[in-house]
Structures are given as C-alpha cells and as structure tokens.
Amino acid sequence: MGKAWVKARRRDPYYRAAKAQGLRSRAVFKLVQIQERFGLIYAGDTILDLGAAPGGWSRAAAELVGPRGRVVAVDRVRLAPMDGVTFVHGDFTDADTQAAIFEALRTPADVVICDAAPKLSGHRSLDVARTLDLARAALGLARRALRPGGRFVTKVFQGDGYRTFLSEVREDFDAVKGYVPPATSKGSAETYVVGLDRTA
Ligand SMILES: C[S@@+](CC[C@H](N)C(=O)[O-])C[C@H]1O[C@@H](n2cnc3c(N)ncnc32)[C@H](O)[C@@H]1O
Predict the structure, then answer these.
(1) What are the pocket residues of ligand 1 if the criterion is a CB atom closer than 6 Å to any ligand atom?
(2) Does pTM top 0.85 for this prediction?
(3) Which residue among 62, 91, 159, 166 is the one 20 to 30 A from 132 at the CA level?
C-alpha cells in the first residue's frame, strides 16, 4: 500500500474508532449500520457469516444473538477463536467447505451475512464481475441454508450485472434493497444487497 493510502486510513474516523474500541475491523460499523436500518439480527438467531475474517461482523453478530444464538463463520483465512462463534476454514464456493458449513449449522439459519471480497485486480469491470460471482455463491448457499422468513445481506460492487443480481435476489425474498452504509469508504463502488423475509 502507498503512503497516501496509509495517510488516508489514519484520517478515516471509522478506522480510528475501530482501533480505539479494540474492534477486529472497521467493517463492523457497516454491519451495525445495516442492522440499525433493517433490523436483520435478533437474540437467539443462528447466523451464517461468509467471508468472516478478521471477525468484526462475527463478533458483532455473536453479541446481537446472545447466549441462545449461534454464529457459524467461514473464511479461507483462519480466524482467532471467539465465544459463540464456530469457525469453518475454507472457500465457501467449494463443495467440501459447504458440507462442513451444513454440518456446523445443524439447523436452518435465520440470517446469512456475506462481506466476502475477492482479491481486487484494480480493473473495475473484472472486480465487479468477481464480486458478483461471490455474491451469487452466497445467494446459492442462502437458498439452501435459510429458513422461510430468513434474511440475507451480501456485498456487491455497483456496475454491470448489479440490476440482474437484484432481480435474482427478488426471486427468493419478499423485499430486496440496495444500501450503502455511511461507513463505506468514500469513492468505493461497494453496496450491500439486503433480502428480507425469504419466501418458503
Ligand atoms: C472484507 S473481509 C471481511 C471482513 C469481515 N466482515 C469483518 O468484519 O472482519 C473479506 C473476507 O472475505 C474472504 N473471502 C473472499 N472470498 C472467499 C471465499 N470464496 N471463501 C471464503 N472466504 C472468502 C477473504 O479471505 C476476507 O477475509
């Protein structure tokens, strides 16, 4: 990363707040803002968190679901252990990892959250396409893992294919919204697609 990026990050209020509060990532503020807006997660829920490392969303989700709830977190990168979080190591697009996810879940999930990001190439159209591929894989898993009435949120980049993806999510959820949390970095194409009330 260049010096300008390091300087910008130091000035970023969400990065500073995450450091000051000992949080695992600044990404946690985005989940908090999505939660405030849509009320996705409730006490006692079972959550599937895809692309979970370093664990900011998983920790926030574990606090929201409380001792009666559970979080199953998945990433290719290992996650330091956390109370209330079961970690599955692997690529969630892979069949073996998916089998391990369903073994860890045991029961249908109430919410699937996905903040997974591919390695960015810097070529906008390629990065948009790769992010949509991951979001589609997350939607496929959500279709299999969620109970009727369940909720879904995934990260995408706005660009070619975004509208098509929204209509695919609409096939399975009663209400679908695109939302850019205020904590999203300025100039980023990142958007979260939120699906509420999974149809049976
Ligand atoms: C932006 S980070 C997630 C941050 C996390 N929400 C937090 O609050 O700490 C994106 C993560 O997605 C993971 N990832 C990307 N593609 C993946 C895949 N196919 N399977 C599992 N993890 C993946 C990356 O390893 C990375 O850790």
Answers:
(1) 24-25, 27-28, 51-57, 74-77, 91-93, 115-118, 134
(2) yes
(3) 62
